[in-house]
Every structure is written in structure tokens, then in C-alpha cells.
Amino acid sequence: MSSPPGALEQELERLRAQNAQLQAELDAVRGVQAGAAPPVAAAAAAQEEPPAGAANGAACCRPVAAARDWDGLQHGLDKDQIARYSRQIILHSFGVQAQARLCRGSVLIVGAGGLGSPAALYLAAAGVGRVGIVDRDTVELSNIHRQVIHKEATVGMHKALSAAEACRALNSSIQVETHLEALTPANAVQLVRQYDVVVDASDNAPTRYLISDACCAAGRSLVSGAAIGTDGQLTVYCHGEDGPCYRCLFPEAPAAGNCARCVDAGVLGVVPGVIGTLQALEAVKLLSGVGDPLSRRLLVVDCAAGRFHSVKLRARSPNCVACGAAPSITTASLPSYDYAAFTGQAAANDAAPQPLQLIPREERITPAELQRRLASQPTAVLLDVRPAEQFNICHLPGAVHTPFKHFDRYVEAIQERLAAAAAGAAAAGQAAAPPAAEQQQQQDQQDQQNGSADGLQPQPPLYVVCRRGNDSQRAVARLRQLGISHAVDVVGGVEAWAREVDPSFPLY
Amino acid sequence: MEVRVLFFARSRELAGASEATLSLQPGSTTAALMPHLLEQFPQLSELGTSFVLSLNQEYLAPGEAQPLKAGDEVAVIPPISGG
């Protein structure tokens, strides 16, 4: 009839927890009523004495001075922690010991971007004792649609500092550490060693290989997430005895062209949110020891199709250069490993690609010069080679859309367009006003270029523009190969146009 | 026999479809997958060797020849690095 002793103890524990929680809620309400500081800020004072005006009530229920009498299990959580984390502490599959492990644990989050935002917020909220955030970038307005840890007010601020501020605002009882420099081969192993678990929330291939190698060398589990467009991937690398690393799965780096970046390819904001949140979940599982970590399983997410696809992975590869039987990448050799050479990419971030100089300078003009020429050359044809998504945001008046991705498909249309412009000009009897005297010399040069000096039908001027002036050079070079030799590139693309000619032109 | 192929991330862009059906000779093995895939979707050659193949949600090592049966599900998974 009587309960077995174990059940009685469990019941007692449950009642104690319930009591502590109710007490905390009561204290919080009283604190608000008395106009006192919020519970966390008042935590230190509450250890010493009960909140003003609550002394009698509290004291008659439970002697506050002997606050740790209830801590029969030595889990080390204080009253405020128990109140704060109560909803997961009372979770049957989690419990107070798991919370205590979380509160003692530490996580390094590499990248305070789309993945790092939800990861850092949830890990801070969940009570991870020490959260380290690595990022060298500053917050831009175009980040915020997905990097929800930042705010309009922190645009221009260092991302690591902005993220740390948000984490502290969410949970002032944890320690948040910021690392304002990029993760490099020189500092990676030493930094990773300072934390229990690492979250890869970076945005480029070289950094991904670096983090994985550093985790192999330092013996740390790695929660790896990635997102682009509407796709996401998630797994836990370097975990346990047989968990593979990033190199086991992808021993060869993808070609640079297959490593789309958010700045070029775009990303639906929620997608890194989903993956980053799952990364926080995996980190919580690893630190608390609750649940099965996503080791030796790769979750592949097609958010557009609503498809979550889980693939069972092999154990660590014995031949792996980072985590195999005889690794060549070790703590000693890693600092001199050339990740840029291995991946063929610099550890680029959300910044613009390097401007190229693919064609001779004399085949290129500035945006200001383009503006002048378009005004004086009514037959000019302007090609815009950006993708449709970008062209549809904004383009120069009269621009003809010929996306570089399928440029050859448009060549016939370009030729027709030039012929039509030439015919139109001929029909109008060159009715346009003659060029101003000071422009005559340049016009003559151009006529020569366009063929009129050779007695050929003059070609209407042809200009090519893109976002930043790289693809437009490639298009001009391609046009030359195809026999259209008078095309001129616009240096710096529409971004330079917006900076130098028309500040109202939207940037994206 | 027919097997179903799922394309993820860059492979979906290159193939222009999120999934496809591949017709193979009965008795084919997984070694026949890539040649057939590349024949049907030549653009996939852009992936080079940097992708993972799975068969019925299990990793398939490069060059591995496992027997295929009708209705099997193959996935093409290139790495993504954004974040």
C-alpha cells in the first residue's frame, strides 16, 4: 500500500522543485510590487537577505538564510537558476543534473551571422555557462533579415560585440566572451581548446576546414551547420570514438564556383535560422548529455520542398589526414596549413569579391562617363548582364537584360538590337543634336572604333554593366570572341553608378 | 528498373529539378549511377568530386558497387558553406 522508497524520494524532489519555483515566482512578483530591481540583478542581494517587504512572508515559509538546505543533490544550481531554467529542469528527459552540466559548460560559436544568431541566443537562454563568440565583421543593414541577434541600433558595430550584448540582455547570469579577430590557423587550436563544444556557424569553405581540423587536433565535438538559398545541412563532427570529421566526408574542397555565398546567391532569412536553432539544440545535447547527438548522421534540408533528409554516415576514415590513424594535420602542423590554397578561396565573408581587371583599361569607362555618353548618344545600347533577380530590383533606363549566366543565348538578340538601333539612326538622318565641340574629339575616336572611319556602317555604341564590374568584363571579352568588338565595360557596375552618379539608385 | 534521385543544393540548381527518375538495367549496381546521372544531367559534371551520394539514406563511398533494386532512393548532396 505504501509507496516504494524510491518513488517517495522522487515525489519529495518534485515537490521541492515545485516549491522552489513557486517561491521564486513569488519573490519576483514581490520584487516588482516593491519597485525593486528585476530578480537577476537582485540575485546577489537576495542571497544575503530577502527582498524588502517580503521578509515576514518568506521567512515564515522557509528560512532564507539556510538557502542551500534544499540542495540535497549537490547540483550546484541556485534559486534564480532553478527559477529561470525551471521549464527544462522539470522536463522528464532533462532534469536538474542536465541543467547543471549545461550551466557548467562552454561553447565557442564561430560566426555571429545567420547561423550564429539563433545558436548564440538559444545557448545563452538555455544557460550555457560560458559562450564565446568569434567574428571579425561589423553589422550591416543587409545582414539583419537573417542575423536576428543584431539590431538596427547595432549596424556598424562589431558583430561579436553586438551579439554578446544581445546574449547578455537575454541572460545576465552567464559569461559571454568575444573574440574580435578571425579564426586563423595560428589561433584556432588554442581558441577551440578553451571550450567544451564548438559550433561552426561560419560562411566559407576555408574556415569550415580550419574549424574541423582544429576540433580534430583539440579533441572537441563540432556542431556543423550550413545554409544557403533555401538549403541547409547539419551534423556533429569529431564526436566520440568513431565520429567522422568534415574532411572524412568531403576530402576534396568544392570548386569555388560551387561555393555560393549569401552575398551573391542570396539566402532566405529563415533558413539559417532553422539550421542555427538546430545547432543550438545539438550543442545543448552534447553539453547536457541528454539525447542522441547527430553524430554519424547528416541532416540535409530542402526548405523549399519542406524535405528533411537524414543520411547515415560512415565512421571516421582511417586514411583521413586530420582524424585518421596517422594524421598529417596536427596541432604542430596546422598553423602553417594553407587553407586558401587547399580550397582555392580566400576566407571571404559577406564582403564584395575583389574587383578584376580582365580587359584593357581603354575598353572600360567610369559610370560618370557612361552617363555623359548615354545623354549624347541616342542610339547607344546598354546591356545589363546581372541575374534576373537583381535586374528586377532596379536597372538603368533602357537597359537590355542579357544575363551573363546564359550570355550566348542573347548574342543574336544583341546583334538585332544593334542593327535596329543603327537602322533607326539612319532613318532619323542622325537627327540628334551634333556633339558639343569639346566632345568632338572623343566622338571621332569612337566613330573610328565603331567602324565609320573605315567606311563601314557605324555600329551604335554598346555598353555593358553588371553589379560590380566583373561579369561585365567577362561579357565584353565574350562579345569580342563573337566578333562584336566595340563593346565597352562600365567600371564598378551599378554599385559604382549608385555611388558616383545616382545616389537614389538602390544598393542590395 | 527505376530508381528515384533526389538533388540537393547546388546539384538541384545544376539539374534544374529537385528529383528525377533514373532508368537502369535490372541488376545494375551503384557504380552505374553516376555515368547515368551525368548522361541525363551533363551539367552535374560541374560538381567535380566534391559531393556525397547516399542510397536509401545511407552514405555511399565513392566507387562503391552495391546492388540496386527498383524503387531505391539516391540522393546527391554537395557541401554548402554559407551561413
Could you walk me through the main structural features you see in this protein, from its secondary elements to its overall organization?
The complex is a heterodimer of chains A (508) and B (83). The radius of gyration of chain A is 31 Å and the shape is elongated. Chain A has an eight-stranded mixed β-sheet, sandwiched between helices. A five-stranded parallel β-sheet of chain A has the order 9-13-12-10-11. In chain A, α7 (116-126) runs parallel beside α8 and α7 (116-126) runs parallel beside α13 (270-288). With 508 residues, chain A is an alpha/beta fold. Chain A contains 20 helices and 13 strands. Chain B has a single domain, classed as Ubiquitin-like (UB roll), CATH 3.10.20. In chain B, 18% of the residues lie in helices and 28% in strands. Chain B is built from two helices and five strands, in the order βαβαβββ. Chain B has helices spanning 9-15, 33-40; strands at residues 2-7, 19-23, 52-55, 58-60, 73-77. The radius of gyration of chain B is 12 Å and the shape is globular. Chain B starts with a strand and ends in a 6-residue tail after the last strand.
Report a brief summary of the structure.
The complex is a heterodimer of chains A (508) and B (83). Chain A is of the alpha/beta class and 508 residues long. Chain A has helices at residues 5-33, 43-48, 55-61, 79-84, 86-89, 95-104, 116-126, 159-170, 188-192, 205-218, 246-249, 262-265, 270-288, 339-343, 367-376, 388-391, 411-427, 437-450, 471-481, 493-500, and strands spanning 106-110, 130-134, 175-179, 197-200, 221-228, 231-237, 297-302, 307-312, 364-365, 381-384, 400-401, 462-465, 487-490.
